[in-house]
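I have been asked to look over a protein record a colleague put together. What it holds is a sequence and that sequence's fold in token form. Please read both lines and tell me whether the tokens look consistent with the sequence. I do not need a full report, just your reasoning and any doubts. This is what I was given:
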Amino acid sequence: MYRILVIDDEPIIADGLYELFAQDETFALEVHKVYSAPDALKLLDRLRIDIVLSDIKMPGMNGLELLTQIHRRWPFCHVIFLSGYSDFEYVQKAMQLGADSYILKSQGDEVVLETVYKTLALLEQETTSAVWNRRMEEELKNARPLLCQDFLWKMLRGEITGAQLEQQLLKLGLPLRAGHPVFLVGGRLDHMPQKSDVADSAQLLEQIHAVFMTYTLPTLNCANVCWQNRYWLWLIQPLEQNPAVVARLDSFLSGMLERVQEYCQKQLCVAVSLVTDSQPHAWQELPAAFERYRSVLTYQLGAQDEMLLGEIAFFDQAMPDHPVWDRSADALLSSLESAFEYRQKDSFDQLLQTLLQGLLACGNPVQKIELYHRLCLFFLERVAAAGRQKDFFDRFHGYAAFTMPYEQWDSSLPSLFSKMGDWLFEGIEDRHAARFHQMVYTLHQYIAVHLSEDLSVNALAEKVYLNPVYLSRAYKQATGEKLSEYILVRRLERAKQLLQQPEKKISEIGYLIGLDSAAHFSRVFKKYTGLSPQEYREASAHL
């Protein structure tokens, strides 16, 4: 999905272009409009914009000044200027500063659409060439040293702090400073390609990191750490540590991560999920924050592909307060964990049965008891990570399952642990469905009482801690209809109610349902009902 911003101080032009693109179905577009350059900059501080269609001369800030401000915020944004008359010198300056095109307003809608379509096609081409060049020239030739990975792991486990931290950062050449807070972005490779080995996985993670580095701003420093050839954490710091820059970084990351996810899906043919947070973390907070991210990425995202979350607060289950399974443990137990994490139920069942057969056949009582307690720990950790202790207690009659007498193991363990495995997998989907049912309910409740306010997908995404693009996709998947369609239906229903109240002026009703002008309200109402507001009011009066 691409975002277009229309800027013109003449509302009739801005409204017309907004409707032109909002109704166009050639591309999946999210369209925004403002009537001044300052309002445009406020929006650009919050959202990634791919194409700006702007009047070149507006009060307060001309197009050349605006162009500079746009590229400071979003270097990959394309700018198309509109003007009521030809001004060759002005156009030349705009092109020198990086404007893409210049259109006379008198040229009509077809020229505007054609120009925007060409720019959208250029965006697709740029994605491939820019990432490929950056990846080939910088990332694949300069794999991150193992010493840096080892240092970051120790730091995230809380083993390196204080003066030693700053010293090691400088010694290893990592572009981070211990005195400044760090933004975190967690990532998960949702599915591994068939027949891939460790080397393939490592290279794929390097490619994903290259994509991230391509889209990030040159004013940001970044380091990354990976684990299990599937998960990663990006640590990000702005070069400038002033409040305004830090405040804008959250919005930039949200928009930039959409592009990273889209590129991975289109060009690398892999699905990735990404999780970030709106607030940076002090270095002493990083070990706890890392465990929180690792728990979310490993256990709480569920089987859903390509999740993109702007707030880790979306997950409100209790986080585990103990380390995850020791990776150096028995190979079968590690494989069992991997099967659970990848939601491979058949493999999980087969591995569990193999482990249980080995446990029951083991002639060494000490080893037998050790394996039993390792399996118990495996299940207990996942129960705690999911925050389902009470459900487990109710389903399996307390924790008696983990204190079973030794002499009952042969007859009871296989059935008991198999049922526990089934229960864990069922819970993954149940929690996922419940979470999104709650999301839909929250949105509907909010929309019902805020029809006159901003109900853009970006405003609503902030209410449920989701990325706007992901919210649109998740809502459509959960309900079968677009979020924008639901909002429009609710607004039209409210408009019909208000039109049946004679004391309400038609000129006011549009504003009361969130449409920004009486003319816009009339056009939308007639398009979807077949009647103008006045005709509907007159028809209702005779019922």
